[in-house]
Amino acid sequence: MTKILVTGGAGYIGSHACKALAAAGYTPVTFDNLCTGWQDAVQFGPFEQGDLLDRPRLDEVFKKHQPVAVMHFAALSQVGESMIDPGKYWRNNVSGSLNLIEAAAAAGCLNIVFSSTCATYGDQDNVVLDENSAQYPVNSYGASKRAIEDILENFEASHGVKSVIFRYFNVAGADPDAQVGEFHQPETHLIPLMLDAIDGKRAALTIFGTDYDTPDGTCIRDYVHVCDLVDAHVLGIKWLEDNKGSRVFNLGTGNGFSVREVVDNSRSVTNRDVPIVEGERRPGDCTRLVSGSSRAVTELGWAPTRSDMATMIADAWRWHQNGHFDR
Ligand code: UDP
Prior knowledge:
Elements: E1 3-7, H1 12-23, E2 27-32, E3 47-49, H2 55-65, E4 69-72, H3 79-84, H4 86-107, E5 111-117, H5 140-159, E6 162-168, E7 170-172, H6 190-198, E8 205-208, E9 220-225, H7 226-242, E10 247-251, E11 256-258, H8 259-270, E12 276-279, E13 288-289, H9 295-300, H10 309-322
Parallel strand pairs: 1-2, 1-4, 2-3, 4-5, 5-6, 6-10, 7-9, 8-12, 9-13
Antiparallel strand pairs: 9-11
Helix pairs in contact: 1-7, 2-4, 4-5, 6-8, 6-10, 8-10
The chain binds uridine-5'-diphosphate (UDP).
The site of uridine-5'-diphosphate has 15 residues, from helix 6 and strand 8.
């Protein structure tokens, strides 16, 4: 069967992508150093442990599996940490990706699906963020992802590497079968932290800033279900098979939810109280990030089915109650 190399396949989004690829008839080969991923999440194809900074190991894996494409998820992705330790982000995300892209080009694997982020756009209040919007990242995480987009563009011109770049908005939810789900250590994301607060694993959810220029004072984000998101990636592989060149797609729903609105939705979905504390702003956070594009829908035929807030929280809650928390 056709193999796809999935970097970060042991992580949250990568493991869901492996499940979707296997369902679509591909063999996902996970390449992961397990620094934030989990080996028990690798359930849908072979596992190759390795680090993107280790070029000989990458060459070995390309030679062994001969993948037709790469889905590149492996990255550090905490906005707050990236502000404290930018070098870690540039080394792991940018140098690691450069190694991967060079290894792929050397192996003749010229199709790359790359997970980028809406954090590359930065703080552009009240602007519709479509794929042509200017990119002014305000944190090192977003800056590192924008740099990788530039590398891909250069390698298309020089080596014929074609890419589909997905700029994610906020990814949420979990596999409805609860085979895989979100589990970061430490956790920094809103919805899993909120679910922890709901079932007493932590005392309260801290809302980071209540003085933003938004209707209720808290930050606004556009949340997209992880299963819908990875479905777009499978369509991205098909796009690369069928098209010349490269393309950027936003993956969001166009619907913005404030932190308080996410909390309110969680109360009604779980029928439980959410203990909250109002705290300071988190450095690097943008006020509002909402996708204004339907390009993925019109050009890829992307049809999200689970990205309404209630379904995302219900799926995350199911995983939260049944997932592998013995890790
Ligand atoms: N957030 C919060 N408390 C938390 C974690 C996150 O208020 O404990 C807020 C954060 O400031 C942002 C939104 O929730 O406005 C989403 O943050 P998350 O870290 O989930 O994703 P990001 O937008 O940073 O990619």
